[in-house]
Task: structure prediction
Amino acid sequence: MEHEGTYDAPGARGGPPGAAEAPAQAAGAPPRPHRHAGVPVPPPMPHAAPPMPHGAPPPVPVEAPPRPRTVPQQPGRAPGAASHDRSPFLTWLRASRVAAGPGIWAYGYRPKPPEEPDRLPGRQLLSGAVIAVLCGWLLGSLLWNGYLGSYWLWPLTVLTPDSWHRGMAAVWTVYIYYAICLGALIYVFGRLGRWPQVWRRYVAPLLARLWDDGGVIPAAVGGGPRQDPADWPQLRAAGAHEAADRLAAEARAGLMNDVDHSRIERAWQSVRVQPGRLASFTETVLRHGAAACAHPSGARDLPVRAARHDLVTRQVRIGAAVDDERNPYVHRGAGYALDPSLLGTSLLAVGPPGSGKTDRLVRPVLESQCLQALAGRTAVVAVGAAGAGLAPDEAFDVVVRIGRQDSAYDLDLYGGTDDPDEAAAVLAEGLVGDLTATLPGEGGRRAATVLAQILGPYRAAHGRFPSVPELRELLDGSPAAVGALRASLVEAGHEALVREIDARERQAHRPGDAGPMLADRLALLDRPAFARFFDTTDASRTFSLRALEHPLRVRIDLPERGHAEASRMLARLVLAQFTECAVARGDRSLFACLVLDDATHAATPEAVRGLGRLRSANAGVLLTLRTLDDVPESLRSALLGAVGCRMAFSGVTTWDGARFAEVWGKEWVETRDVTDRQVIAHEPLTRVTHVVRRLVTGRAVTAQSVTVRKVERERWSASELAHGVPAGHAVLSVTSVRGSSAPPVLIDLQR
Result:
């Protein structure tokens, strides 16, 4: 169990407590490869497994392969009895979670008391309380021992009748009077020492913490009491008592981790939508226990975890808000986290190399999305330079190493579509999307038209799209290639498409034609290093982003060294394909996430427009930039406006800081202006006093006047962002897909 109470899955940091955590493939044969739209069937590969069939929901129909495991230990109590288990998983599952607002780490969060502008420092408050106790004790001792006389007993003798001075009435009267005097002392010195404030600030939270540690089942997310989640009350309420008993037994025996819990919860949600699946769900749980409804790869956890995750709220912690006056009071000292509701508005992070973008942001977010993919909740695609080390190969189902001869997968250059016009639009965005602003007229549309005039006839003639060398020859206007294509069309009877070829030949001789420019850009991919890639004749090893309807974990390594321009072009292509495929999904129940590490020259006008469409499609993009100068001047403000989450790391320039300051806007703050004015004395005695004070202090006698007013100022100025953010820190503002937002907060990324 790490600091902050985060849960480490049994397989995350070492060996499992039992055989249940062994890989699912260890005992049985690997799952039989099968194909669906856009997902290749590669050669045997230890880290990859084919995804689920097209259109099938991830949870119930998929059954885990047989695996050797020990018999679960007999639980020491009935499922509904009070629990005193101390296993890390059960402690994590039963921890309190308070939905305090977007961006706040909900695991174990305790709301802060209301802000008190005149709040006393803790040292002054405690010292005052101790002094009040000592003074009250001293006064009470002096009165009790008679050192101050017996006058404090006069009300007792004056106000009570003589008949009360004998027998038990006298005893009760005296003790009641003593209690009244003691209460008066406690009240007076309690007010002087601010004892109620000490109770609220220190004693009450300590008692609440001890109460939570005593085994009390905390409240659920959003507040309100609930049953023990380890007993699976939602299954029992639906009548699946046997399945609930099996899962509760495996949870208490240490055979379940947080991914298993989240995955089965996801499967149960599909059962609630379609009650007819209840019997199949129960049978699967009784057969496989915690390994039921497993991911197609059979994996139940990642090989290693570097960040703190909470799969109940689907959050990943990236740091903690600094206790700084520039941060809102509610956020000070609270943990900060990201989840799909925030990533669904897309996130842009800007910072120089070495500021922590990859280590402190990209890797935790990617790790979280991979865990949620194993739980059947997310499809994630990570794009980065080869050797960036975003995550180990074992954490992914598909690894595309472009330019590497040992890559088992290839990338579909056309996005897995059969529509020539759609394929032409996506390919044109990847090839010349960064040049559309400099092209005459509507450059992007003209480039897409040129490609469509070739892709449509070629697919009609050959049943597939052309490979890179074939497409380059056609764009160059090679007579042999164009003649062969025309002959194939005539032979197949596609006379209408022959006119497309004729139109392409006529336009090729006009000035400003986009064909030569497309051919030059395509020549960057027609290199010996990419000879085995972008092959349209072998669909068995080609990966397409049309597979985003399935809980896949994909990593695409770009050939950064020696092919920088080709890498940027491929990054634009993947971004264009992602925005197109994520919006076109028929089933949007899975959150689709694209993590693009170093989006230099990837932001184009069409890409910025596409980011705005992802919010309603349950998808989002994480983009990182070294500087906003990597984005065209005309798109910088539009890019910052298109994303809902913005992050500025330490070391940004004042020019970048000015853009962030502009988009974060201003706020009303209260300022205090103190003015010193010299006091002029008119009386002789006062003048003498002022002369003496001036000789002693060396300054004239002055009086201060304080002016309090409200002014509007920037939340974070460009200078503060450039020079006031310490190393290892960042300023982050978030917005959820439902419209909730949080102002920019200074975060310590190392906490």
Observations:
- Confidence is low (pLDDT under 50) at residues 1-84, 214-225.
- The longest helix spans residues 168-193.
- The chain is about 40% helix and 15% strand.
- The two ends are 16 Å apart (CA to CA).
